[in-house]
Every structure is written in structure tokens, then in C-alpha cells.
């Protein structure tokens, strides 16, 4: 595979073309935060068409009967009204697979507070997307203020079956920053070409594999100019290895003759850095 890839690279480099990418849509696959603790966090997703959605994600939770979370919106974001004209923006539709029972939303400055309650003694499995909303960048948007954080049970608590208080079991991963990047752009120059594949191959010689989450704070020692640790992960499987060089190269070859890549390489995505 490596040999084939190197061959392809030398072939392409000989007819080197810089290809500017005009991207109008993209998607994001979350880089999972490792661990098995019950937790809540926000995953920012670029939707088809360029709108930005924020998913409130619950993981590893026991069944919940009633709960509340407080959402803190960084100054880099503004929450858009939902389709029902609700200016508070949080979206919990009847077509969602979860059942929030009764719920209420309050706001306080840039924060949002959601309380939910159901009368089923067995509680509900809320794991997955609890609710979502759409956001836009403000004029002062930058990676450090483009954060969205959730805190469980700030005042409403979090209760399981028989109203057992489980607030203390839950953790709230803290989002420190979020970065927009081009999938596969390992050298951070805003275009996808053979140099990105070369960069990845060089970094992963001797079968080196980097876990994206593990290098989130140290990636610049490996990919000095990448926008974030996730950028070289061309196939978005959470690790950077030589197979990413292959998909980047395949995408570059496809785009250089006007075809759409079979992977998401070249699309805009967003990467959240959690503490
Ligand atoms: Ca590049
Ligand atoms: Ca990968």
C-alpha cells in the first residue's frame, strides 16, 4: 500500500497542479472523547449547505427520570431562532427519537437552561442527541471563544429512577476551543494536494499511528502548520496513519480531473478541543 502510494505521489508531483477547493458543504464526524463516565457535551456539526448545528450529546448515562442542564454559549456564537420562531433556539421536535416529556427552557444572557421531566418511573434512555440548535458566527468569532459547554444539574439536578440523585456521577467535558479546518489539509495551507499526502506519509513512517485525541495539545510538533490535530485524519477514523495519505492522494487525484472524491477530504469540518 505504501509503495503504491509513493508511486502515485511521484506521478502526481511530476504533473503538479495546485487545486483550489471551493467547498459549499461539509459534515463532521465527532472525535469521541474517551472514557466511560456519564457525560454531556456539545458537538458542533457543519450541515449540508453550510449551516452550523450544535448537538447536545449525552453518553454513558443510566436511565434518567428528570434532569436539567445549563448551556453556556461562547461569545463567538449566536443561537439562531428555531423553525417555530423560538428565539431561544433549542430544538426538541416530536420527530426526535428521544422523549423529553415535559420541558422548559429559560435564558440568562448568552446561557440557556433546559429542564426536562418525565413521569415514567423507569426513566428514559437519553443517550445520544438530547436536543440541538443552530448557530452562527459572531463578528468577533475566533477559535478560543467558539465554545459551547453544558453543565448538568446546575440547579435542576439530574435524577434517575425513583428520583435517585445521579448528578455527581456525571461529568461535563469542557470545550476549550473549536477550529474550522479542511479535512486532509495536513500542512494547513487551505488546499488539498500531494504535499498533504507527503506530510502524512513522512509523519507515519515506520508504521507510526497517532491518535487524534491524544495529540490534541501536541500536534504542532508533528504537523506544525495544521489547523488542528484532526486535519491530517483524512478518513476521519480518529487516528492518523498511512491510510490517510492514501485517501488524501485519491481525493487530490479525483479533484484534479474534476471528479468528486469518494471521501470527505477537502470538505470543511470543525474540531472541538476538550480539556
Ligand atoms: Ca494542504
Ligand atoms: Ca485516519
Can you give a write-up of this model?
Strands 3, 5, 6, 8 and 9 form a five-stranded antiparallel sheet that branches. Strand 5 (102-108) and strand 6 form a beta hairpin. This protein has 275 residues and is α+β, with helices and mostly antiparallel strands. The protein has helices spanning 2-14, 194-203, 242-256; strands at residues 39-46, 52-59, 66-73, 77-79, 102-108, 111-117, 128-137, 148-152, 158-159, 175-182, 210-211, 239-240, 268-274. It starts with a helix and ends with a strand. The protein has three helices and 13 strands. It folds into two domains: 2-23 and 182-269, no CATH class; 39-179, Immunoglobulin-like (Sandwich), CATH 2.60.40. The protein binds calcium ion (CA) (2 copies).
